[in-house]
C-alpha cells in the first residue's frame, strides 16, 4: 500500500524536515520520500487544508481490562480507541485480573502482535497490587516491563515505597505512583471544599495528595532513584515537583485532561461521568497545572483512560466507580484547553515525545527510510464529539456533545493505517 500525504506541516524535532511543509510518500509502512512536491500515480492521495503530522502519541497509565475485565475494555478495543486519538503506543497499568505482577503476565501484554498500537506493560510493585509484598521487578524488567506501579492503587506503605525505589535503582527503573493517602481520603468521593460541603458529600482533601507526594520526594532523595508522579491535580503538588527538580531530584510528573478542564463546581449536577480520581479540584489548581505544563514542571499529558461499564456508572454518585474513557479525546481536549498555554509543537512534545524520552523508548522520526509511526491531525479543526466517535467498549465520558478544537485525521504504525471519517 502506498499513501501520499500532501502538504503536511511536519513536527518532528529529530528530523531535517522539522517545521517544514512537504509531501510525504509512505510505502508498506515506511517513509520512502519527503519533498516539496511528489508525483506518484499509484499512490492513494490524502490532501487536507491544514494537515500537520507528528510521531504517534504515547499514553502512560492506560487502564485496560484485559485480562479479567474484558467486558469493560480489551486490548483490541483499547487499540481502536487509541488509533482514533492519535496514539501508537500505550503503557498499560497492572490493575487487571490477574494482576501484571510476574513475567508471564508481562509477556502476555508484550506478545500482542498485528496491532497498530504498541503495548508496553507496567509491572506491579506489590503482589496483586495489594500494597504488601514486593514483586520480582527485575524478572519483569527482563521480560519487557517498561516501569513499575500499583496503578490506581497508591503505594501507601512507606517501607514498600522505599524498597521499590531501591530495587529499581541498579537498572535505572522508574516507580510510578499516583499519590493519595487513603487514610486522609477516608472514603471521600469529591474534592474537599465549599462544593463538597454544599452537596453534603464526603470530600478528599488536597492534602491527601500533597502529603504522599512529599513523602515520595523525601524517599526519592534518600534512595537517589527515579520517580514519576502520575496525574497530579493540586497547585501545591506542582510547587513540590518544581522545587524537587530544582534540587536535582530525578522526578517527572504528568497531568490528565479532566483535571485541566473541569473544576469541582460541575459536580452540582451529580453526573457520575464527572467522578474521577484524582477528583476535580478548584479553579486555582487548574491555573497552577497549566502553568506547570508551560514551564516544564509537568513533563507530559496522560489520558488516565479508565473504562467503566454501565453497571459501574449508572448509579447514585457515591456508589458509582471513578473514571472516564479518554484515549479518543485527550488530544482534542488538551488542544481546546491549552490553546493559550502551549503552542502546537509543545503540545506534541507533551503527548508524543516526552513520555518516550522519560521511559527510555525510541522516539519515532519523520525522515526518509524511517518506519511510519505517525499521527496526522488538524490542530484548528472544530468538531463535535458524539457517541459515534467512541471506539472503546465503555462509554463513560462527559464530552459527548462538546465542541472541541483539534482533530486526529489518521494514525499509522506497524504498516497499518487508521483513517478517520470526515
Question: Mean pLDDT score, rounded?
Answer: 97
- Uncertain regions spanning at least 5 consecutive residues: none
Write out the CATH superfamily name: Metal-dependent hydrolases
Rg from Cα: 21 Å
**Helix content percent band:** 25-40%
The general outline is: globular
N- and C-termini, Cα separation: 21 Å
Number of strands: 18
Number of domains: 1
* Beta-strand percent range: 15-25%
The major beta sheet can be summarized as: 8 strands, mixed
Characterize the structure shown.
With 422 residues, the chain is of the alpha/beta class. It has a single domain (56-358), classed as Metal-dependent hydrolases (TIM Barrel, Alpha-Beta Barrel), CATH 3.20.20.140. 29% of the residues lie in helices and 22% in strands. Strands 1, 2, 3, 4, 5, 16, 17 and 18 form an eight-stranded mixed β-sheet that branches. Strands 6-7-8-9-10-13-14-15 form an eight-stranded parallel β-sheet. It has a two-stranded parallel sheet with strand order 11-12. Helix 2 packs parallel to helix 3 (137-143) and helix 4 (158-168) crosses helix 7 (206-223). The protein is globular and about 65 Å long.
Amino acid at each position: 500500500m502506498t499513501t501520499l500525504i500532501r502538504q503536511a506541516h511536519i513536527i518532528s524535532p529529530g528530523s531535517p524536515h522539522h517545521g517544514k511543509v512537504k509531501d510525504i510518500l509512505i510505502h508498506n509502512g515506511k517513509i520512502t520520500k519527503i519533498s516539496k512536491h511528489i508525483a506518484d500515480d499509484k499512490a492513494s492521495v490524502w490532501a487536507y487544508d491544514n494537515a500537520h503530522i507528528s510521531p504517534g502519541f504515547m499514553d502512560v497509565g492506560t487502564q485496560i481490562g484485559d485480562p479479567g475485565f474484558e467486558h469493560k475494555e480489551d486490548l483490541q478495543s483499547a487499540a481502536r480507541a487509541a488509533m482514533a486519538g492519535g496514539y501508537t503506543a500505550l503503557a498499560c497499568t497492572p490493575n487487571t485480573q490477574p494482576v501484571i505482577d510476574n513475567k508471564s503476565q508481562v509477556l502476555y501484554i508484550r506478545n500482542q502482535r498485528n496491532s497498530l498500537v504498541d503495548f508496553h506493560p507496567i509491572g506491579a510493585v506489590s503482589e496483586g497490587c495489594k500494597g504488601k509484598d514486593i514483586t520480582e521487578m527485575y524478572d519483569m524488567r527482563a521480560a519487557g516491563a517498561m516501569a513499575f506501579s500499583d496503578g490506581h492503587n497508591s503505594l501507601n506503605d512507606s517501607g514498600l515505597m522505599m524498597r521499590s525505589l531501591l530495587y529499581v535503582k541498579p537498572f535505572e527503573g522508574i516507580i510510578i505512583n499516583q499519590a493519595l493517602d487513603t487514610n486522609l481520603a477516608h472514603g471521600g468521593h469529591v474534592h474537599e471544599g465549599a462544593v463538597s460541603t454544599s452537596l453534603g458529600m464526603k470530600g478528599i482533601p488536597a492534602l491527601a495528595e500533597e502529603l504522599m507526594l512529599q513523602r515520595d520526594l523525601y524517599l526519592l532523595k534518600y534512595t537517589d532513584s527515579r520517580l514519576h508522579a502520575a496525574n497530579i491535580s493540586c497547585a501545591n503538588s506542582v510547587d513540590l515537583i518544581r522545587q524537587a527538580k530544582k534540587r536535582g531530584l530525578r522526578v517527572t510528573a504528568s497531568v490528565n485532561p479532566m483535571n485541566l478542564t473541569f473544576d469541582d463546581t460541575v459536580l452540582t449536577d451529580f453526573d457520575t461521568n464527572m467522578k474521577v480520581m484524582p477528583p476535580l479540584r478548584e479553579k486555582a489548581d487548574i491555573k497552577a497545572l497549566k502553568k506547570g505544563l508551560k514551564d516544564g514542571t509537568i513533563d507530559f499529558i496522560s489520558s488516565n483512560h479508565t473504562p467503566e461499564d454501565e453497571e459501574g456508572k449508572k448509579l447514585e454518585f457515591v456508589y458509582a466507580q471513578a473514571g472516564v474513557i479518554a484515549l479518543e479525546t485527550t488530544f482534542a481536549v488538551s488542544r481546546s484547553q491549552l490553546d493559550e498555554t502551549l503552542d502546537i509543537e509543545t503540545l506534541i512534545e507533551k503527548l508524543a515525545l516526552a513520555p518516550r524520552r522519560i521511559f527510555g523508548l525510541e522516539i519515532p522520526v519523520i525522515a526518509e527510510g524511517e518506519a511510519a509511526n505517525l499521527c496526522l491531525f488538524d490542530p484548528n479543526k472544530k468538531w463535535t464529539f458524539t457517541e459515534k466517535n467512541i471506539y472503546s467498549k465503555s462509554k463513560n465520558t462527559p464530552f459527548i456533545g462538546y465542541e472541541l478544537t483539534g482533530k486526529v485525521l489518521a494514525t499509522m504504525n506497524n504498516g497499518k493505517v487508521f483513517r478517520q471519517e470526515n
